[in-house]
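Quick one, tokens below. Sequence please?
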């Protein structure tokens, strides 16, 4: 059992002991009910205190049980709360640190609540595509009012206990303790003050009234607001329905309505996707052969080589986390330009009120520059972000090998070059790793951590931890061309090109995939990032892998100098200073002419085919990436696509999406595409892993 029972004089204390956040798994639930029975049977006990050990009162459901029958095993959370309410002796919740989800619902089932200031209080179920399922939508409005409760339930965001305690007329907390240190003693004292009360004298939240003065009109207003903001997610609107039920129905009927809604949301694609994301995000930091307790190197200062687009953004991440950065460049002018860009970025944040002036100054004070490698001799981590040429990287890494202190981590931000080759330029390949940031590096969440064949385990563990510190989603990739994300996007881009050859227009392709939920279609994306980047890669490919077929349209576009927004024209036309993509007659004519050269009669291509070809191209390459051991789990691939490539969150990433469609269906569709005479039959050969999983009736997991 993960709850302890002890008696302090006339007060019984039940302490949840399920680290890290006292999740309400079966063993905790049974521990609580067991403690309750003991306390109620012991005549010496006059009142009961429930609290959580360590860093939380309770963070809610135990994620290890999520979606498994164990979560429902009796006593489930509803039964535990009923048992609290039925106690003949007063129960006081001693709340501190974290009181969320089921943890808050549990507290609301107690007769009294004493909270420490600074406690994060939330019902975050909506973030998993659900509504609270153990009375949260029925009890919270009764203690803090309908509007505050609805805001909390619809947003899922935490609110500090002292703010809630200051609400006029609130009944959530009977007492705000002086501090987190004193909350337990104050709860015990409070319990003594109510000891001996029993039966009707014990207050229950369920008996409080629940009304909104404007009644249905308020809820109509709330639905309009929430509906407008949550279009691809059903749960937020259902939160409103559940809270409305609290105002219209008797308590038990409202509870039944909450349960009905909760159950109906449990298996929606959106909830499954969000729960997958929740788990995959946590799992991404786990590397199969690098144990959690691997010792980490200390990172107190960082060197960055190159003050260009990436170097500047990378530096900002560390400054934001309070870690000093020294940037090295070849020339003073390049340094000045880089620093000016960093300042401009921060100043824009200050202007928008997102950053305080003193914070900005503190961050800038952590930044220094140099033109000499010798000045990097004390850096614990050095990240290279110079031109993408192996010769330049060689020079830089040889210099770093010369000056860096023993044990310093040497990282490259290369997006296409071989990290093992880069490591070989040094005498310490074990200290070399790839840290592939995405542009703009101070904004994008994704960090691909590229593990070379010699990269030491403690280097990996350190880089994953530092990724977390700078608030990135770090995902480990093996060494291969393009790593996880770009290797997959290449296949997606190839399909986008073939679709043009066969009869689609750039705007049709973009619209179809944007309707599916991508932030931006491939052609608008190309115009934003610069079509010349892909052009350079294709030229390299033409030498390395002449067998790989491409549509020539993108090359033709670049031959016209249409690199995208930066040249004022790409797949679309752009008006000066604006970013709106205007369909281009010239480009559409170019595509038609190219079809004629190829002897292709254009056909009407459905949006469904467009989406399937683009997404399944990602899925098939993702499966190859798993087979090759470049990614260790499919959830890592999903994290890359959700955080770095604009894949719709509510679809859970390409691999999760394919599993939801069913791998059998995905494979059959691929086989159908393989028969398309214009297409590359080899392209649509389902990866062996997909075939194996189909044969075993399994999915990616
Ligand atoms: P950039 O051209 O904006 O900046 C490169 C900077 O490195 C320039 O300021 C240059 O003066 C400096 N530099 C060149 N050689 C140097 C040397 N030997 N010593 C010191 N400084 C030197 O390039 P960008 O876009 O920042 O790219 C840098 C690296 O990041 C490349 O490896 C690139 O592949 C990678 N990358 C770029 C992404 C992007 O979207 N731009 C995304 C992810 C990775």
């Amino acid at each position: 059992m993960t709850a302890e029972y002890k008696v302090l004089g006339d007060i019984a204390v039940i302490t949840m002991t399920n680290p890290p956040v006292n999740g309400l798994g079966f063993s905790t639930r049974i521990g609580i009910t067991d403690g309750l029975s003991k306390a109620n049977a012991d005549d010496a006990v006059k009142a009961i205190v429930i609290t959580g050990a360590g860093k939380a009162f309770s963070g809610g459901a135990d994620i290890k049980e999520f979606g498994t029958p164990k979560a429902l095993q009796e006593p489930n959370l509803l039964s535990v709360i009923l048992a609290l309410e039925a106690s003949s002796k007063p129960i006081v919740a001693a709340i501190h640190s974290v009181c969320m989800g089921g943890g808050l619902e549990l507290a609301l089932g107690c007769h009294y609540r004493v909270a420490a200031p600074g406690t994060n209080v939330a019902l975050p179920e909506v973030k998993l595509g659900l509504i609270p399922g153990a009375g949260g939508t029925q009890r919270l409005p009764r203690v803090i009012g309908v509007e505050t409760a609805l805001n909390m339930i619809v947003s899922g965001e935490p609110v500090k206990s002292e703010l809630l305690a200051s609400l006029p007329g609130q009944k959530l907390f009977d007492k705000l303790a002086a501090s987190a240190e004193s909350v337990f003693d104050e709860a015990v004292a409070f319990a003594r003050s109510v000891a001996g009360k029993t039966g009707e004298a014990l207050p229950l939240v369920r008996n409080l009234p629940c009304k909104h003065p404007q009644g249905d009109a308020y809820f109509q207003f709330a639905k309009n607001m929430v509906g407008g903001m949550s279009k691809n997610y059903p749960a937020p609107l259902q939160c409103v329905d559940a809270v409305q039920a609290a105002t219209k129905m008797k308590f038990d009927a409202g509870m039944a309505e909450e349960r009905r809604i909760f159950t109906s949301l449990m298996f929606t694609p959106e909830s499954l996707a969000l729960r997958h994301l929740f788990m995959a995000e946590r799992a991404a930091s786990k590397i199969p052969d690098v144990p959690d307790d691997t010792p980490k190197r200390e990172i107190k200062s960082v060197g960055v080589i190159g003050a260009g687009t990436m170097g500047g953004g990378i530096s900002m991440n560390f400054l934001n986390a309070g870690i000093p950065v020294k940037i090295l460049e070849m020339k003073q002018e390049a340094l000045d330009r880089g620093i000016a860009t960093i300042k401009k970025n921060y100043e824009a944040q200050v202007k928008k009120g997102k950053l305080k002036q003193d914070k900005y100054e503190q961050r800038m004070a952590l930044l220094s520059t140099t033109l000499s490698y010798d000045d990097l001799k004390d850096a614990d981590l050095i990240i290279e972000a110079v031109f993408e040429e192996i010769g330049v990287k060689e020079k830089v890494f040889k210099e770093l090998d010369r000056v860096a202190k023993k044990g310093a981590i040497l990282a490259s931000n290369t997006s296409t070059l071989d990290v093992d080759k880069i490591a070989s330029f040094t005498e310490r390949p074990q200290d070399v790793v790839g840290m592939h940031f995405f542009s703009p590096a101070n904004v994008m969440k994704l960090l691909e951590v590229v593990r070379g064949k010699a990269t030491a385990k403690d280097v990996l563990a350190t880089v994953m931890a530092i990724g977390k510190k700078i608030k990135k989603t770090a995902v480990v990739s093996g060494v291969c061309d393009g790593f996880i994300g770009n290797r997959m996007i290449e296949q997606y881009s190839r399909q986008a090109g073939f679709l043009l050859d066969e009869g689609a227009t750039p705007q049709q392709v973009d619209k179809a995939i944007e309707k599916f939920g991508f932030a931006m279609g491939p052609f608008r994306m190309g115009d934003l990032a610069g079509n010349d980047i892909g052009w350079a890669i294709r030229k390299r490919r033409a030498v390395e892998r002449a067998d790989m077929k491409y549509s020539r349209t993108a090359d033709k576009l670049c031959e016209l100098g249409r690199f995208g927004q930066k040249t004022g024209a790409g797949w679309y036309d752009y008006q000066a200073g604006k970013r709106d993509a205007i369909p281009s007659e010239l480009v559409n004519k170019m595509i038609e002419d190219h079809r004629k050269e190829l002897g292709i009669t254009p056909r009407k291509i459905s949006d469904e085919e467009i989406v399937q070809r683009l997404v399944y191209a990602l899925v098939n390459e993702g499966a190859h990436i798993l087979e090759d051991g470049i990614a260790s789990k499919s959830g890592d691939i999903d994290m890359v696509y959700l955080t770095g490539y604009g894949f719709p969150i509510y679809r859970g990433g390409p691999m999760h999406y394919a599993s939801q469609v069913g791998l059998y269906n995905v494979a059959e569709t691929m086989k159908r595409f393989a028969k398309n005479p214009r297409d590359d039959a080899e392209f649509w050969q389902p990866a062996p892993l997909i075939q194996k999983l189909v044969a075993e009736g399994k999915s990616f997991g």
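The radius of gyration is 29 Å. DSSP finds 28 helices and 19 strands in the chain.
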